[in-house]
Amino acid sequence: MIYAIYLVFFFLILRFTVTMFNFISDPKLRKVNRYYDQMVSILIPVRNEEDNILYLLQSIKKQDYENYEVIILDDSSADNTFNICTQFAAANPNFKVIRGESLPHDWLGKNYACYQLARVAKGEYLLFLDADEEVHDGLINSVIHRMLVNKLSLLSLFANQQMPTIGEKMVVPLMHFILLNLLPLRLVLLIKNASVAAASGQFMFFNAAGYHKHQWHREVKDKVVEDIEIMRLVKSKQLNGETLLANGMVSCRMYKSYTDSLNGFSKNFLAAFNYSIPAFLFFLLLLVCGPMLIAITTNPPLVAFMLMLIILTRVMVSLTSGQNVFYNIVFHPVQMFNMVVISFLAIQKHLTKTNVWKGRRI
Asked: Both 291 and 312 in a single domain?
């Protein structure tokens, strides 16, 4: 048992160290006072997004960058998405809507939609956004500046998460929790090895010339976690890619309920571990059961040290990601329980090949 306790504390201290590195290095996009005029194509794949899309389109219209086009691809929506987008585009000349082609059997839906969007884009930069986001002033100037300074082929941002319901607060913070205590984000740019990769499909900003040359979405046409796979490909070509936190310039409400959050995260959680169920279960065992093992020792110094590491980790992750510190500490046990639920759903869907999203099997 003593070796198991050593292993748990090694895991806790390692994650605490990574979190502290991210907290101190503060990997956020910085707003700049420079102004650019390069053409930016904002590309939005949509499928059954009638509740979300108008908020995104209005936020783009209100933001402070002028030289842009917006192309929305409707991917066989069964609701009123196409009509909403068409009406908005009719009143705003920078916006246009196209219908997606039939999905080939060897492609996933979003990947094919992005591929089609890129084919008709005219910009010097390509910005892929999800329909459930909103953008804010300073964003485009800041990302172009970052692209030029670091000679990037790809810049990806993790959006600030909006979580108005208790159910969302019990699940959605897991994304930043896992991200910021497992990977030092600054190393995505600094280390050229393709294995050190992270990205968010919610915000992918490409140099258009590089994108058209390599056809990144075609390269990952059947990948569920296409964002990370593209970042790995970018780095494997010895090109520069960087991943940062959006720092309030992009916000997103990923899911609208507790159930939606569980189903949404279980869709691609296992893919982050390259579909290795043993590796996934070992990680889960250390993350969830490890603290329980320390607790049952009833050794006050050990338990206190463990709690200190967990609480400080949650404080740093919350402050870095712009989330509520109090909620993330109070809900930590519930979030760990939900991690187990998500894991069960992810493994079950993978083994039974019943992973479905927006009406399509993936």
From this structure: yes
108 neighbors 355 (Cβ within 8 angstroms) = no
End-to-end CA distance of the chain: 41
Question: Residue 298: CB partners within 8 Å, gap ≥ 6?
Answer: none
Q: Are 258 and 168 in contact (CB under 8 A)?
A: yes
Q: Are 84 and 53 in contact (CB under 8 A)?
A: yes
Task: Give a yes or no: residue 94 inside a domain.
Answer: yes
The domain tally of the chain equals: 2
| Enclosing domain of residue 269 | 2-25+259-355
- Chain segment 87-101, per-residue pLDDT in tens: 999 999 999 999 999
Residue-level pLDDT at 267: 84
Q: How far is 226 from 220, CA to CA, in rounded Å? A: 6
pTM for the predicted model, two decimal places: 0.94
Same domain membership, residue 195 and residue 74:
yes
Q: Is residue 32 part of a domain?
A: no
Closest CA to 19 of 289, 314, 333: 314
Q: Are residues 12 and 46 in the same domain?
A: no
Q: Which helix (H) or strand (E) holds 232?
A: helix 226-236
Residue 275's pLDDT is what? 80
Q: Band of the pLDDT at 56, cuts 50, 70, 90?
A: very high
CB 258 within 8 A of CB 342: no
Classify strands 152-158 and 125-129 as parallel, antiparallel or unpaired.
Answer: unpaired
Domain with residue 236: its CATH number is: 3.90.550.10
141 and 264 housed in the same domain: no
Q: How far apart are CA 107 and CA 113, in angstroms?
A: 10
Clarify whether residues 74 and 209 are in a common domain: yes
pLDDT tens-digit readout, 212-238: 999 999 999 999 889 999 999 999 999
